[in-house]
Amino acid sequence: MKTTAFIGALAAAVLGTGAASAQTLEDVNERGALNCGVNTGLVGFAAPDANGSWQGFDVALCRAVAAAVLGDPEAVEFIPTTGKTRFTALASGEIDVLSRNTTWTFSRDNDLKFEFTGINYYDGQGFIVPKALGVTSAKELDGATICVQTGTTTELNLADFFRKNNIEYEPVPIETNAEALQQYNAGACDAYTTDASGLAASRATFENPTEHVILPEIISKEPLGPLVRHGDNEWGDIVRWTLNALIAAEEYGVTSANVQDMASSPTDSPEINRLLGTEGNLGEMIGLSNDWAVNAISAGGNYGEIFARNIGEDTPIGLARGLNAQWTEGGLLYAPPFR
Amino acid sequence: MADTHAESVAYVRDGFLPERPAPARETGVVGWLRQNLFSSVPYTILTLATLWVIWQLGAAILPWLWGGVWHVDSIRACREVLEGAAGGCFAVLTERWAQLLFGFSYPSGEYWRLGVAFVLLGVCLAPVLFPDLPRRLLIATLIYPFVAYWLIWGGTPLAAVSGLAGLAGGAAAFRTVASRGALLGGIAGLAALLAIWWIGGELAAAAPGFLALPPVASRNIGGFALNMILGTVCVSLSLPFGILLALGRQSRLPIIKIACIAFIEFIRGVPLITLLFVANVVLAYFLPPGTTFDLILRVVIMITMFASAYIAEVIRGGLAALPRGQYEAADALGLDYWQAVRLVILPQALKISIPGIVNVAVGLFKDTTLVSIISMFDVVGMIRGPILASTEWNGVYWELYGFAALLFFVTCYGISQYSQWLERRLATDTR
Asked: Would the CB atoms of B99 and A52 count as touching at under 8 Å?
């Protein structure tokens, strides 16, 4: 992380403010394709399928932005980035938006000169235990042996959590995720802790996934979201409000199935009408056509549909909505009003 | 005397006994076993222990191979079919073989182009590799890079043709003018080269559809094909550069010598992965904004620099091993520097260097997998990224990495066997 920060800072220093030109939208229109940085491969979030077409939760956002800007969800050039190359790719202008399970932190936002345009997944550190252990809450893990990757923030979060709750545990320090899973499956530790989405994805690869549970406690904040360069607010707004449109669409019940219907003529709900462009001129204000949100929602459905298709409970990954539910259902998703 | 003998012993044989075959325990299979496997107690123990290990490995691996599942669509389906029995989930290979070989975004209708390029590589390398073949075939080797470029990247062949024509025209101009002085010849050759390239570039731009194959962008090339491209291009480029660097390091001209030493020592002092990061990340900042400098080209330059430095050191070893008399003899014959190098020094130095050069080539070929770290999808990048990150195949490790290991083993073992054959064939001094 230190290296990444350094390279990013170096990048920003070399580039200065001049290269962060305020014309990303023009560039994208001229190119006819959105350059979107994604993960080289993360289960459920970004991976090409057997036909070579990119699929996943982060990928869906790229497609929605491309649909909103260019009217075509396929007009995306996916640029795979690793944890080490992602920030330089964005800073150097190789990609227009980075949608790669990146945690929003203070230093990335300010020191690396990026702008996070929202949060599309609230992740956090969780625990996985065998069902046979009979534990239902992390607070019942008193005296447990816990596998944890060394030298990570998860190790510190773990210590904080147990100290705060005044219970004892015995850490089993382990180097890599793969090794940790092997140790856990061999019974070398009672529980394994890392990011909850990672736990779910790993559980999907177990021989008997149903014999393991992910405990409800989330002990750290890992808000993941798309980001753009500093200095082009118009472009940042487009990415931000495309994400908001997907979230709002779920709240208002606009889906990929009914969006064309609803957009064909004004409905009873003025909020939906403004979102879908049958009323007002929100599209013009953001510099896009008036049916930008219709295109974005048609691309892969609203936030709920994207979630369910890629990482939801019916997929092998089987993540519950949890914090990522709408605010009306006890989650944190809260799109500002379209007005 | 014979009489005394006859009295002291009862019987004296007066003919030879017929030869009898060696005892069964000393010949045939039994004899071989006794001599090689059970000749003493420690050897017997070692043999038994080895047999036990082989048995254990075989018992673990063979059922896994025979019991493998080849035609399902996910790891979960594999487990259902196996129901706990031992067996590999080879279905991932049957479903994703094309991605492992060609990358996930090379157009599937165009795979034949990579296949043809690969077969032609074998055909066109043969004249270089096997000195017994007619020398005229070398012309195919010279043409090959341009054909391969056209096949792999597509587009109109005019660009490749003009590239070749430019080199040929430049060489011809050099030859015609060189009799009046090497410098003049060089200028004439360069002028002809640039003129033909310029005309070719204009032609290719004017008729982009002429005999065109669908163009494929560099970032869409991946899989083992990418390893092969990087390995072949970088090894063939780094040989001439390495020779020049090695000669430069021995030069009597101080500037050339210092430049070569600085280059070699700097490159050898830096890990390859650092150079790759420079290629991927840092170069973008030094180029004017908006210029897109092909990523494969950047990586080829970096790996070539890296390999050249190592090959230069290997060849320097060969040069140093030559007896000083060889240099002096070449001078005594009145050969100038380049003649001496070409006719006397290099043929011997290169022969000594073969094992080292092959060692570098094999290592370099395997190092091409490092590009997976800078998010290029070579065969290891395909496994680590897209395939293991798909919900269908997440959790299949042995089958995928075993397949990659097999590909690399076959290639590297082939290179190694060839080099041993070449060494035997060139061993003129000990014959």
From this structure: yes
CA distance B121 to chain A (A): 27
Question: A138 and A107, same structural domain?
Answer: no
Domain boundary among A180, A214, A248: A214
Write out chain B's pLDDT in tens, 431 residues: 455 555 666 778 888 888 888 887 777 888 888 888 888 999 999 999 999 999 999 998 999 999 888 998 888 888 888 887 888 899 999 999 999 999 888 888 889 999 999 999 988 888 888 878 888 888 888 888 888 988 888 877 877 788 888 888 888 888 787 777 777 778 888 888 888 888 877 777 777 777 778 888 888 899 999 999 999 999 999 999 999 999 999 888 999 999 999 999 999 999 999 988 888 777 766 776 666 677 888 899 899 999 999 999 999 999 999 998 998 999 999 988 888 998 999 989 988 898 899 899 999 999 999 988 888 889 998 988 888 888 888 778 889 999 999 999 999 999 989 988 888 888 766 54
Mutate to test the interface with A, among B100, B391, B400 (most CBs of A within 10 A): B391
Would the CB atoms of B391 and A84 count as touching at under 8 Å?
no
A210 lies in which domain range?
A: 125-214
Q: Contact B377/A40, CB-based, under 8 Å?
A: yes
Interface check for B105 against chain A (CB to CB < 8 A): the answer is yes
The answer to whether residue B167 is domain-embedded is: no
Whether the CB of B76 is below 8 Å from some CB of chain A: the reply is yes
Tell me the pTM.
0.81
Would B184 be classed as within a structural domain? Answer: no
Note down the domain range covering B307: 220-431
Give dist(CA A159, CA A178) in Å, integer. 22
Residue B137 lies in a domain: no
| Residue A264, domain member (yes or no) | yes
Which residue in B285, B373, B385 is closest to A14 by CB distance? B285
Q: Pinpoint the alpha helices (H) of B83-181.
A: 91-102, 111-129, 138-153, 157-178
On whether both A37 and A170 belong to a single domain, the answer is no
**How many domains does the structure of chain B reveal?**
1
- Residues of A in Cβ contact (< 8 Å) with B398: none
ipTM: 0.74
